[in-house]
Amino acid sequence: MSKTSAADYYASIPVFRGFARLMEPQLYQPVPDDWLIGTADIVESTKAIADKRYKAVNMAGAAVIAAVTNALEGREFPFVFGGDGASFAVSPDDEAAAREALAATATWVREDLALAMRVALVPVSAIRAQGLDVRVARYGPSANLSYAMFAGGGLGWAEAAMKRGEFAIPPAPSGAQPDLSGLSCRFEEIPAARGVILSVLVLPAPGADAQAYRKVIEEIITLTERSPDAGRPVPAGAPALRWPPQGFGYEVRAARGPLFSRWARVLGRTLFVYAVMRFNISIGGFVPDLYKQQVVENSDFRKYDDALRMILDCTDELAQELERRLGAAASRGIVRYGLHRQDAAMMTCFTPSAIRPDHVHFIDGARGGYASAATALKAAVA
Q: 317-351 in b/e burial notation, b at 16+ Cβ within 10 A?
C-alpha cells in the first residue's frame, strides 16, 4: 500500500458528528490487514502519579503522537491519546519511520522525563489471528478536525501483548531525540467549574452481550450530554495562560539543541506567544480569539478505543449517578469501569501550525486522570 493510498484509506472514512453515534457499527471501517498498530505506555504510571508527576506522564503520552506525526511529515493517520500512553495505526510503508520515532521517544522519555516507556508495533494480521479486529471511525468534534475512534477489541489485545514483551521495540541509543516540534503544555490547569473533574473509563466485561454493552454506553453518553450538570472541562474562553507557563520545563525538554539555547529559545517563544494572546494581537494570519475558540472546539475530552474514555466537568450528584448506573451494569456482567475524581483538568497541546485550524488538545484529569481511573478499574475486578 503506497503512502498515497495509506492517506486515502483514512481520508475515505466519513467523519461523523454527534458523539452519541459512536457505537453505530457502520461508522467503523476495518484497518487493512498489512497495517500495524503502534502502542505505548508508561511502566508503573501508578507510582509516577502517586509521586504527583501527572504532567510528565501526560507529556510522555502526547510525545508519542507528536513524534510519529512529525516522522510521517504531517500525514494524517488514526491515533488515540490514552493519558499515560497512546495507540495508532500505520501502513507498512510507514513502519520504519514509526518504529524509529517510537524507539527515540522511549529513550527521550527515559532520559528527559525519568520515566520508563514500553513501545511496540503489532501487525493487524496477528490481532485478527486471535479472532479480534481493528476498525476505525472518525469523529469530528468541530469542523476543524477529526479524531480516530477504534473498535473491535484489537487495541486492548495489542497493549496486553506489549506488556507481555511481545512485538517490543527496543529504545534508541542514549541521546536519541524524536522530533517533538509543536508539542507544548502552556495552558494552566483548568479548575472544575461544576464541582468535580471526573475521569471515566468503561470497557465491556468478558463475554458481555454486545447489544447490552452498546446500550449502556449510549445511555451514559446521553446522560452526560443532556444534563446541565455535566460538560466539557475546557472553559469557553480557553484555559488561562500565564508567563512563564506552568509547563515551561517540559517544553524545554522537548526542544532540540544545547540546553542553554533551548532555554533561551523557549523563553523567548513563550513570552512572544503570551504577549500576542494577552494583548489580542493578530499577526501573520494568526488571530488569537479564533485560535482560542478552536482550542475549545478541538479539545479531545472524550473518545472511544475499545473503551469509552471521558473527562467531564460535572456535579458530584451526576458523578454519583454515573457510578450508580455503571455499578448496576457491572453487576449484570455488562461492563467493567473505573472512575476518578479530582479538582482540575489539564491540557497538553500539539500545534504543528498555529494558523491552521487542526491543532489538537489532549485533555486529562490533573490529579491522575485516565491512569487513576484504570487503576480503580483493576482494583474493582481484582
A: ebbebbeebbeebbeeebbbbbbbbbebbbbbbbb
Amino acid at 148: A
CB neighbours (10 Å) of residue 79? 20
The Cα 354–Cα 357 span in angstroms is 7
Long-range contacts, 209-214 (Cβ 8 Å, 24+): 209/334, 212/332, 212/334, 213/334, 213/335, 214/23
The dihedral built from the CA positions of residue 59, 52, 314 and 200, taken in this order, carries a sign that is positive
Angstrom distances, CA of residue 164 to CA of 159, 160, 161: 9, 6, 5
Question: pLDDT tens, position by position, for the chain (382 residues)?
Answer: 444 466 688 989 999 999 999 999 999 999 999 999 999 999 988 898 889 899 999 999 999 999 999 999 988 999 999 989 999 999 999 999 999 999 999 999 999 999 999 999 999 999 999 999 999 999 999 888 999 999 999 999 999 999 999 999 999 999 999 999 999 988 999 999 999 999 999 999 999 999 999 999 999 999 999 999 888 999 998 999 999 888 888 888 888 888 888 889 888 988 998 898 898 889 888 999 999 999 999 999 999 999 999 999 999 999 999 999 999 999 999 999 999 999 999 999 999 888 888 899 999 999 999 999 999 998 776 5
Please enumerate in sequence order all residues whose Cβ is within 8 A of that of 263, keeping only pairs 6 or more positions apart, or say none: 252
